[in-house]
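queue> pop job 88
queue> type: inverse folding (structure -> sequence)
queue> payload:
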């Protein structure tokens, strides 16, 4: 019979898919002729690596992950944490290299898993389906003897029937089903998120490789795990999971749009947005002009910390100060 996902196209899901499509077109339209795409790709890859490994408990900060990507040794980091990060960089490059591959095989999954999980497995062997029973919290995945057959069905669906639906949906379905099967003894979370990204790449959704959806999952890990768990409570109905994932993709693309704009202003080579700078820009976009005190209260940081965030944004021409010295407020600068 094969694998057949169950879900309903609700008004909310349809609205989010349409919003994602519109944002994607806006971003790709702005990015077509820009020389800074490699810099944005590098930044996106770093954010993906940091977020996906952090979800699994890796303690390295975004700046430490960036240091590893640049060949620098981050201070106060342990060998295993570094290896997980280095592996994930290699895994993303493998996915990028094979982005246009139309037919995926078990061997492709084994190779990706070998790259991601090599030298960091707590149990089992990298690049081979598990031969042991595992537990994920209260969830008990299928027995080892069922894994190969279930993965055969998933690959058959991925290679054939998934191509008839939006990649926004097929990526999320692939992500969930892989995690439900839990085919490897360890490293399934990282591998499943990499496969979801691979689906967006090979279906031409993220042609420039500048979307980092894993940041959305990492920033609210309890909600991420709850959304996965809810599918099981709903009798394997994926509707809620798809709504969650499309909401995340929509938020991701809104952030990418901010990053595109930051690279398109003055001195783009000097401005790589930090997470709190992105949050600051989101606040100004949603609320209009804000006073310094409103900003530092909303960001939960000091006055000096807020000014440190604002300074490069003002220098780049993204933010401007309006009003008098005493009543001055900060606002996004109109293009």
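queue> result:
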């Amino acid at each position: 019979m094969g694998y057949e996902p169950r879900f309903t196209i609700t008004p909310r899901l349809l609205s989010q898919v349409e919003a994602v499509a519109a944002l994607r077109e806006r971003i790709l339209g702005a990015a077509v002729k820009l020389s800074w795409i490699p810099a944005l790709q590098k930044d996106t890859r770093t954010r993906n690596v940091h977020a996906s490994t952090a979800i699994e408990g890796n303690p390295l900060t975004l700046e430490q992950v960036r240091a590893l990507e640049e060949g620098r040794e981050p201070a106060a980091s342990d060998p295993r944490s570094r290896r997980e990060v280095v592996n994930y960089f290699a895994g993303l490059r493998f996915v990028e290299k094979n982005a246009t591959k139309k037919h995926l095989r078990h061997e492709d999954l084994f190779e990706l898993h070998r790259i991601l999980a090599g030298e960091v497995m707590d149990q089992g062997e990298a690049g081979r389906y598990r031969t042991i029973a595992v537990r994920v919290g209260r969830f008990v995945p299928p027995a080892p003897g069922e894994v190969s057959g279930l993965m055969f069905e998933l690959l058959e669906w991925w290679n054939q029937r998934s191509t008839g639906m939006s990649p926004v949906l097929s990526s999320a379905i692939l992500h969930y089903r892989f995690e439900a099967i839990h085919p490897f003894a360890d490293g399934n979370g990282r591998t499943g998120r990499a496969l979801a990204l691979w689906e967006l790449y090979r279906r031409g959704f993220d042609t420039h490789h500048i979307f980092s959806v894993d940041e959305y999952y990492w920033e609210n890990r309890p909600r991420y795990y709850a959304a996965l768990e809810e599918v099981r409570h709903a009798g394997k109905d994926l509707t809620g999971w798809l709504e969650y994932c499309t909401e995340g993709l929509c938020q991701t693309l809104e952030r990418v749009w901010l990053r595109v704009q930051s690279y398109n202003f003055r001195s783009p080579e000097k401005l790589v947005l930090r997470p709190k700078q992105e949050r600051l820009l989101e606040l100004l976009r949603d609320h209009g002009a804000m006073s310094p005190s409103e900003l530092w209260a909303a960001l939960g940081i000091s006055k000096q910390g807020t000014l440190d965030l604002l300074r490069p944004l003002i220098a780049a021409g993204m933010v401007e100060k309006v009003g008098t010295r005493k009543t001055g407020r900060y606002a996004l600068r109109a293009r």
